[in-house]
Amino acid sequence: MARLGGKHELGSPLWRANVGDEVDAELAFHVEMRTRELIARGMDPPAARAAAVARFGDLAAVNAECRDIGTSTEREMRRTEYFAELAHDARFAVRQLVKTPLFTAVAVATLALGVGATTAIFSAVNAVVLRPFPFARPDELTFLFSSWHGADGGVSVGDFADWRKRSTSFANMAAIQFVGMTLSTGDSPERVSGAKVTASLFPTYGVAPELGRVFTEAEDQPGQAAVVVLGDALWRRSYAADSGVIGRTITVNGGPATVVGVMPATFDPTDSHEALWMPAAYTPERLAFHDEHYLTVVGRLKRGMTVAGAQNEMTAISRRMSDEYPATNSANSSHVVPLGGAVIGTYRARLFVLLGAVGCVLLIACVNVANLLLARGATRSTELAIRAAVGAGRSRIVRQLLTEGLVLALVSSVVGVALAWVGVRVLVAAAPANIPRLASTRIDAWVLLFALGISVLSSVLFGLVPAFKTARWNLESTLRAGGRQSTATPRDRVRSALVAAEVAIALTLLVAAGLLIRSAIYLNHLSPGFDPEGLLSARVALRPAEYKAQTEEAEQTFTRILEAVRAAPGVQTVALTSQAPMGPGGGSNGIVPEGKTPDIKNAVDSRLRVVTPGYLSMMRIAIVSGRDIEPSDIRGGLRVAVVSAALAKALWPGQDAIGKRFACCEGKPDDPRWKTVVGVAADVRSGGPTQEVRPEFYLPMTQIPAEAWSWVGRTMTVVARSGNGNGASLTPGIRAAVKTIDPSIPVYSVFTMDQSIARSMAEQRFHLMLLVTLSAVALLLAAAGIYSVISFVVALRTHEIGVRLALGASGRDVVRLLTRQGMRPVILGAAVGAVLSVWATRLLRGSVYGVQTSDPATIGAVIAVLLGVAALAILLPARRATRVDPTTALHG
Amino acid sequence: MPPTETKDRLHGTLDALVLKTLSWGPRHGYAIARWLEETSQKALQIEEGSLYPALYRMERKGWIEAEWGTSELGRKARFYKLTARGRRQLRTEASEWTEFARVVSSVLSSSQG
User: What does the pLDDT read at residue A560?
Assistant: First the structure.
């Protein structure tokens, strides 16, 4: 039998035809061949056909079976083919990238920088803002504040009790009072921040203890034996994570307390990092007392209740309470704030500003890579044209270029994530400690997905532009031109637009950074109102158990401490205050000047400072008029006070405050104990340079009422000035001096005043550092982008430049020409950026001080810097162009 | 219908025979059917239709490849070609058959001892 052969059509399009048609045709062919054979043997055609069909068997069944198998074969082959092509493209892409190491390195570094920075900041935003709180149904949790003249503040015990009793919007409500506590575990007392809380705190948050139990409502009653629930950190630090600690009695504030439970590390109800919780155990008198606002109140909304609904109810309740308790509540209202808003607060805005800034950096990085890909597309035009000529379809070439982009993106995101990993560590280490939840920043699956997403999106998106441009190229003209480009192609316009875009973005970022720098300079030159040089502050706390009843003794002990410190080595001057600037402690009182009804509506909220004589002069706080607190201001004498300039202005505008009297701090509202103003002191920025000046008043320690010791927690701050300007050197002397008075008194929160000022501005500095770094990266990337574009243009136009030089143009003419062309998109971008920055920097309003957000001087300076850098980026490659040898250029 | 075991044996047999046919070069379905008919001296009576699912199955397994070509009469026909994997399969099947035949024939020719 003859060998059946025939011409094979490789890759015939028929192969891709419908499987069903193929099966039909194949089976028909068989039947027809058999019929012919039978006819050749002498059968008549209809009979032959019938016989052939009969011999074949069940034609329909065979057809169906073949279609079935054929379809799945087809599907599989397509898949195999697709992956084979992809693998081929990927291998090819890697080869291409390896072949041009400089391009690859620059592109990967650029993208990785963008991805790394964005990912690191996104991780932080994710940790602080986006990540849910580790509490059951956190969106039901709210904070409740007492508002006074529109400002949110703490809640009085009486108000809390009434709110809890009267409101129906909340499933549960709890109160927290933060107090410093002294733990006597070993030989030296340890000072920790603790909280006195209602038993309802734990069920409100819905968090169970990791060990033991939480305390009960019965234990949260006055007169009960003290119990304590430890935080995880304290349990690990001081009790070596020993589960046997449950049931043990420890000494808190000089009294015994039984440990009943340990809360998990994630339990930090208000992000205040308190170390332990004890029952608040309010007395019936306390529960009926509507003054002294020191509670933080948390409420869990009932299922389905909205914050607005709860607010409506609370507003109505507050209004009724204003009528019922006019003396204390007439000007009070209440404010319901979702937990997220209250804890995260302003960080949300700041972190989103940062995220926006890194987004800009990423955008510039993408623009640079797009530029690089465009340039690469141009230099590879000959290669691509040849590939098109030998039959590679347009979509095939686009796919190949996209694969290159993808490979680039993957490599960049790996490097970028590594950068982000380092970045997050640097970020957390450099950040001030008080940014909530930042320390738990992690690179998790979401963050990785985010990084990969932006990287792939950016390089594919920007890879597409050159891919389609390249694919559209006229094949014939490209080949004929020998790969050289004519001067003005549409791609030049794309490139110019990209340069303009990155200049605009970089300018916006630089303006933002410039504003923060100006603001930092302003803050650094701002007088704090006192002289921080050589000043050291340290907190000293007396234990309530021992000094509770004996007010006299507290006063005497502090006086002895003061004298002991005064004698310590190196101490030039010393005083005590209930609260040093930027330090903990203190409280505020509503002050009513004489002659006005002693009503809370007439009161000016003012910070109280209980001080020892000479405090103002030792702090070098200027005395505007009158005198300092003096040793002669003793109990039984004229009750004196020094007011700050701001308070004097608020109470007696336009008048001399000296000799005026005000009611404050003791006695009943209808029987005020008058204080006579003997001095007016200059304002002090007690909250740090970034905070507004608030009214303050100073009372001599030797004249304060007995209750005042519990307001200040029997805790004072020692402020001492060193003669040699180094405050830190005083620390051992002060510790030793206090020890000689009573070794059980803890000395803690020891800081030089310079440290305190730095700490109060740490957030600003952190913000500044990040934005300056980001804008520097942006500037660098923009300069690199401009440089690479001009270099590329010079390379493409070597021929033309050669002609110009040969025709007698001077090197300077060429430089001028290139600079003019190069600067055009830069100037356009700067103009757009200037407009953009005025709009964008509005987001910084809460973060800059002493400068308007649309500050023309800053914008002008930034434009000058940017144009200078751009000119440099253009001049370097342009000068290279003038060294072109005309003969080489023309031959090339 | 014969019992399943027999059917499987028949399937396997048919596969082996088709692979053998194609080991001499590519050919279309009808040619394979004709060759089977002639070389087996019509001893092997299979329904012609059952050849095609077998071919599609072997294509799916990657033993053979199909391409459209022009038959000797100038008609478009689907040509099957042995792949490297198919060639290996043929060797396996052939040695299995030889072994099977040897065992069976030794059993059949043995005398009671």
Answer: 92
